[in-house]
Structure formats: structure tokens, C-alpha cells
Design goal:
Elements: E1 14-15, H1 16-20, E2 35-36, E3 38-40, E4 50-53, H2 66-72, E5 76-79, H3 81-84, E6 92-94, H4 98-110, E7 118-123, H5 128-143, E8 146-150, E9 153-155, H6 170-182, E10 187-191, H7 194-198, E11 209-212, H8 220-223, H9 226-234, E12 245-248, H10 252-260, E13 265-269, E14 283-292, E15 295-303, E16 309-314, H11 319-334, H12 339-347, E17 357-359, E18 368-372, H13 377-387, E19 395-399, H14 410-420, E20 423-426, H15 436-450, E21 457-459, H16 464-474, E22 480-484, E23 491-494, E24 497-500, H17 503-512
Parallel strand pairs: 3-4, 4-5, 5-6, 7-10, 7-11, 8-10, 11-12, 12-13, 13-14, 18-22, 19-20, 19-22, 20-21
Antiparallel strand pairs: 1-2, 8-9, 14-15, 15-16, 17-18, 23-24
Helix pairs in contact: 4-6, 5-11, 5-12, 11-12, 13-14, 14-15, 16-17
Length: about 525
């Protein structure tokens, strides 16, 4: 699934020789004298005159798609020795590390056009997307129109596109920033995944501010240990990538990051006591939070290092979103927004698709339905704790877990669901290449440890659409049906095929169907 196809900044052509001049790891002695009009790693997102870069992937080498890229008009291919065996019909430049070279070439080709943009990056396990939207809203008060590259969406010119990855490949990121500059955006917020840092997708970018929300159990299929996962996130908090940072110290990983980061850091504790060892001259804290009767959301008091109390508001309810809002406010101030303007902007953040998203329903005759991205044990627990006080009836949970991803979290997800929700509908998320039944079996084992009789538990083997439909139709007025795991995703991946699917759209169809 390709993204970024609308993003075509108006830039001068560049000589491939000039672009590669001084780049390390180039093995080819002869560089063809061809003109380049763009760069892509995706053979479907490419136009005549562009350079195609074939990078090694988890399952396939990108150079296997060079023939398709050349048919689309690629005038040259950059790849490694392994990839070169797949290329014919166009000049091929062999390099040691094509992914690293792709990032450097993207910076050289696209980077000069967006140096005046304010840029903020947000990382962490949970809360990245919500915090990114909040930062975008906070920056808008002083920066005008603000672009966003986040999970599920990229919008740098007022024409949002669906994005599969949390962080796009380096040429798409650089191309998007160039378009944002040409469209007179004043700033861009980028959601930064650990994979993006490990794979160099943000190499060559210097952010005005970067922010860290938390580190929780996820992606251990790739990183194997939490320490390696942490190290990937920490790369963002270095002088190569950022001028200043904001770190939430509510977990031990945040406290470690605050002590090890090599850039100026502001810290904040939102859900815990101020930890020992932090620099109190740069530490903010949340002293109180609670619901507001007149608005859906949570009010809170943010206290500065000097002891000044600021009244703030998160338009998304729950303690975890107080944390996200506090981080967003401080990230905006680190990027130059006055604190009062940042607070005002965050308080008016529009609804974030797939993040505690209420699907419209007739509450006089239907249950409430909520869609959320919670897909880690910690996120699911936090979500259930948040909604429990808001629900008069039962909490009915529709959930699954991803295939080809960290299997070690699956049984814990089942345990938390069984412990904290009333009715469970176990279904599929993105099975990818795994057998869906085997994925659900992990969840069922976790559930059975808490509920040996499996009371109130239904496993749906047909499809996620059926699970959603049956859960909503079986619910009553006063109940809350929570559909978790996919959030705003617009597809479901099964055996390499991306099927059009949206939890929000399916729930809406069920709620609006004729009686």
C-alpha cells in the first residue's frame, strides 16, 4: 500500500553525480550523468525521471521491484550487491547501505526547501498519536496551518492521506516537509516510531523539539529486549536529531531518558509523584485532575518549576490523556509557543480518529460505542480504568491482537480484558501471515486464567465485522461497547492483502441499520 502519491514538491532537477558526491559507502566507481526529479523506495510511488532505491526488507529485497520502477520511469537504481542482481534495464549504483543512502539523498534533494519550518517529533509506546494531534493544535496558535505525519494519516497540504506506517520512509518524510513548506505551513508535527529511528527514516532532520510519552511492552518481536527498544527511542534525544526535548517521568524509562539525554530536557510528572533525581529547575508536574461537568474531557492543573499553577484541559477524557496533554503543552513551549497559547490550543484539539472516539448513536435506545487504538497491555488497562466511572451498564469489549508481532504480550492482554471488562468478544485484528485461530488461542489462554468458565466470553472465528455487529446488537442502553486495537486504521491485513476495513465505519453501519 503506497502513500505520499499526492506529494510532489516543485523542485529543480539534480544531477545524480552531484547528489552522490561525498556520500559514504558508494562502491560503484562510475556514476551515470543523469538528472533526477525525485526519489522513492516504493515502485508504486514513483514518476518518470525519479531515482529508485532498493533496500533490503524483512521478507523481500526492495530491488526485486526495480523492474516495475523502471517501467514507471525510474532513470537509475541505487541498491546493494544483493539487490543489484535483480536490476536490469537502468544504470545501477551499488552502495554499502542503501537505506542510509536513501535518507541522505532525500535530505540533499528535498531538504533545502523546508529549513524555516518549526518541527516537533513525538515518540513513546502509547499516546504518540494523541499527543501529536495535541501538539499540532498547540502550535497552530502561533504557527498558522500545521502539517501532521502520524499513525494512520499524513496531512501536509490540507489533503489528508491514509498512512500505513507510523513514520513514513525517509524520502516520503522529506517530500512531505517540502510540500508543507511550499504550501506555507508554519510547522509540522511528526510521530516518530522506534522502527523509524532504527531504520534511519528521520536521519538528517533536526527537530526544534522532541517529546517522550512512555515506554511499555511492545515490539519485542523486533527488539527482543526492553533495553534495546528504549535505545531506539533514545536516539531521538540526541544533538543529531533535536535541539530540545520534553520527557514524561511517570515511568522508569522516562526517568532514565531524562538522565541520559544529551540535549536540554524539560521533564513532567503527570500521574506520579515528582521522582527523585530530576532537575527541579526544569521539572513540571500535574497537581490535580478531574472531570468537567460542562465538557467531555478532563481538567487539570499544570505547575511550573517556579510553582506557577496553570489551569489546563484535555478534550479527551482520562488520566492517560492528562499525561498526553501535559507533554504536548510543554513540547509546544519548547518549540517557542507561549505557555498560555499552548494550553489554549491543546484544550481545543479536535477529536482524534480512533483514540477514544465515540461513534454517534441514539443513546435513548442504543449503547454507546467507542473505538480506540489500545493494543498493548498497559494501554488496554489504562483505557478500561478511564471508562469504568463513565459507564452505567456493562463494558463490552471487542478485541484481538496482531499477527507477526510481539506474541509475548498476547496472554496478558487476555488477562486484563477478562479482569476489567464485563463481556468479551474475541476476534481478529491484523492476522498478517499467522493463522488467526492460533492468535486468538493466546488471548483465550490469558482469559481462561482469570475466568476458567469463560463466562461472558465469545470467540468469533468468522471475521471482525461479525464480532462488532454481534457485540453492538447484544448490548443494551447504558452499556459501552469498546472496539480496540485498530483505532483509525483503514484496512485489515490478511496474508499480504490489505482489505478495506474501519472499526468506526462498521460500527456506524450497525448503529444506523434499519430496525
Amino acid at each position: 500500500m503506497s502513500i505520499g502519491q499526492q506529494y510532489r514538491p516543485n523542485l529543480s532537477v539534480r544531477s545524480l553525480r552531484d547528489l552522490l558526491d561525498g556520500v559514504e559507502g558508494v562502491h560503484s566507481s562510475e556514476i551515470p550523468d543523469v538528472e533526477i526529479e525525485g526519489i522513492s523506495l516504493d515502485s508504486h510511488d514513483l514518476e518518470p525521471g525519479w531515482l529508485f532505491v532498493g533496500v533490503p526488507g524483512e521478507h523481500h529485497h526492495g530491488a526485486r521491484f526495480a523492474e516495475s520502477a523502471i517501467k514507471q520511469g525510474a532513470v537509475a537504481v541505487v541498491t546493494d550487491m544483493v539487490g543489484a542482481a535483480h536490476v536490469s534495464g537502468a544504470p545501477t549504483i551499488i552502495v554499502e547501505d542503501p537505506r542510509s543512502v536513501a535518507a541522505e539523498l532525500a535530505v540533499r534533494f528535498y531538504g533545502g526547501s523546508h529549513q524555516h519550518l518549526k518541527t516537533v517529533a513525538v515518540t513513546g509506546t502509547n499516546g504518540k498519536t494523541t499527543t501529536s494531534y495535541m501538539v499540532r493544535s498547540a502550535l497552530g496558535s502561533t504557527c498558522g496551518e500545521v502539517g501532521l505525519m502520524a499513525t494512520g494519516m499524513i496531512d501536509v497540504d490540507g489533503r489528508p492521506q491514509y498512512m500505513l506506517r507510523t513514520t513514513a520512509e525517509a524520502p516520503v518524510v522529506q517530500r512531505g516537509l517540502a510540500v508543507a513548506a511550499q504550501e506555507n505551513r508554519g510547522a509540522v508535527v511528526v510521530e516518530a516510531s522506534a522502527h523509524a529511528m532504527s531504520l534511519g527514516r528521520l536521519d538528517g532532520l533536526m527537530f526544534d523539539a522532541v517529546a517522550f510519552t512512555n515506554l511499555q511492552h511492545d515490539h519485542l518481536d523486533y527488539y527482543h529486549t526492553m533495553d534495546k527498544y528504549f535505545q531506539a527511542k533514545a536516539l531521538l534525544f540526541t544533538p543529531e536529531h533535536a535541539r530540545a526535548g520534553v520527557v514524561c517521568t511517570d515511568d522508569s524509562w522516562g526517568r532514565r531518558l531524562a538522565s541520559e539525554a544529551s540535549i536540554p530536557i524539560v521533564t513532567v510528572s503527570a500521574l506520579t509523584e515528582t521522582p527523585s533525581g530530576v532537575n527541579m529547575d526544569h521539572h513540571w508536574s500535574v497537581s490535580w485532575f478531574g472531570p468537567r461537568e460542562d465538557r467531555w474531557g478532563t481538567a487539570f492543573t499544570l505547575v511550573s518549576p517556579e510553582g506557577i499553577a496553570y489551569e489546563a484541559f484535555s478534550p479527551i477524557p482520562g488520566a492517560v490523556n492528562v499525561q498526553n496533554a501535559a507533554v504536548a503543552i510543554l513540547a509546544a513551549t519548547q518549540a517557542g509557543v507561549p505557555i498560555e497559547e499552548a494550553i489554549r490550543g491543546v484544550g481545543h484539539t479536535p477529536p482524534v480518529a480512533g483514540r477514544m472516539e465515540l461513534v454517534p448513536s441514539d443513546e435513548a435506545r442504543q449503547p454507546r460505542v467507542l473505538v480506540d487504538y489500545a493494543h498493548t497491555p498497559e494501554a488496554l488497562r489504562a483505557l478500561l480504568e478511564t471508562v469504568r466511572p463513565l459507564v452505567k451498564g456493562r463494558i463490552i469489549l471487542v478485541f484481538g491482537t496482531d499477527g507477526d508481532r510481539d506474541a509475548s504480550k498476547r496472554e496478558e492482554l487476555g488477562e486484563i480484558a477478562a479482569e476489567m471488562a464485563d463481556i468479551l468478544w474475541v476476534t481478529d485484528e491484523n492476522p498478517r501471515t499467522e493463522d488467526p485461530a492460533s492468535i486468538r488461542a493466546y488471548l483465550m489462554r490469558g482469559i481462561a486464567r482469570v475466568r476458567p468458565t469463560l463466562e461472558g466470553v465469545t470467540e468469533v472465528s468468522q471475521c471482525r465485522r461479525d464480532a462488532t455487529r454481534m457485540a453492538i446488537q447484544a448490548a443494551s442502553v447504558g452499556d459501552l461497547v469498546m472496539i480496540t486495537g485498530k483505532g483509525s486504521e483503514a484496512s485489515q491485513e490478511i496474508m499480504g492483502v490489505f482489505h478495506a476495513y474501519s472499526d468506526t465505519i462498521v460500527a456506524t453501519e450497525v448503529l444506523t441499520a434499519p430496525l
